[in-house]
Amino acid sequence: MTYDIAIIGAGPAGLSAALNSKIRNKSVILFGKDSEKLVKTKKISNYLGFSDVTGADLNQAFKDSLKDFEIKRDTRKVKTIYAMGSYFAIEIENESQMVEARAVIMASGIELKKDLANEEKFFAKGVNYCATCDSALYRGKKVVVIGYNDESVAEANFTSEIVGSLVFVNMTGKEVSLNEGIDLIEGEIPLGFEGTDRAEKLIFKSGKEILADGFFIEKDSSKAERLVPGIKMEDNHIFTNKDTSTSIKGLFAAGDITGKPYQIMKAVGEGQVAALKAASYLASKN
Hints:
- Residues 3-147, 178-271 form the FAD/NAD(P)-binding domain.
- Keywords: Flavoprotein, Oxidoreductase.
- This is NAD(P)/FAD-dependent oxidoreductase.
- The protein is α/β, with parallel strands linked by helices.
- 23% of the residues lie in helices and 29% in strands.
- The strands form 4 sheets. Strands 1, 2, 3, 4, 5, 6 and 17 form a 7-stranded mixed beta sheet that branches.
- α1 (12-23) runs parallel beside α7.
- The longest helix has 22 residues, at 264-285.
- The two termini are 18 Å apart.
- The relative contact order is 0.19.
- The model has no long low-confidence stretch (mean pLDDT 93).
């Protein structure tokens, strides 16, 4: 099935885009999990219409707005989005067949953590961002998972059943439950990678080093330029025109990924605009 609109990210911008796309009678697929940043916010005092609401309650109110609409949800990680001219091909984890959409709205938020040294240099050359997607490439080999979120623990456990050996670098700030046989590193700060043609070792601030065949960095979101090859960026954000259109025809962006201020009301408003513009774009193609 080819969807009218694929939305990447299920935070305030993505949920707003999904609602407004569906109201305009478009078929919609929404990728992503609940915004952890929003859900964990204890009090929001500046959202119009709500007084000192918790992030969890506001997020639930957003989701309740969608419950009467037929919107396909998919919580799997999006690997890459390819612009194919008249449509977009979306590669997702653990799926051999691409998901197709006539338009895309990027609402995946922004990753504020700085890259590790040589992370970009060795991207797809030993450094990857989805263990469940690419673990088969390292069957029988040694890999390192650097985990910054809760999902990274599940990714490490899954990957350990495929690869030869696995080291988990715990950056979650929490105790983790790992499969037997996984080596755990805690209290170390990873600085970057070294290698010749590909990443061969991970270097820590303490001077500790780990040699491995592959490295997976598991964070809440991937950089937009890695998700969408060729997208125009500006100051680490997707460049957008005032109408949320981007440098790629048919691809729109909303929320934190478009730049400051990182505010919920801005994200919701941009999500609505992106949906309206995506619907107009599709109408112009008919």
